[in-house]
Amino acid sequence: MTRSVTASQSDMGHDLFKGMAKSKTKTKERKQEKKAAAILVGEHGRYQIKSGQLAGEFIARAFPKPPTQSRGLIAEARGATEEAAIAALHDVIDARESRRTEERRTDSRTGSSVPSTEEYREAIGQIALSRPQRAMLMALSLAGEEGLTDARMAYAAGYKSQASANRSFASANLLIASYLSVETVSPGTETEGTYLLGFRAEPRDEEDPGNWVLHPELREAVRVAL
Question: Where is this region: Disordered (predicted)?
Answer without folding.
Answer: 1-32, 97-119
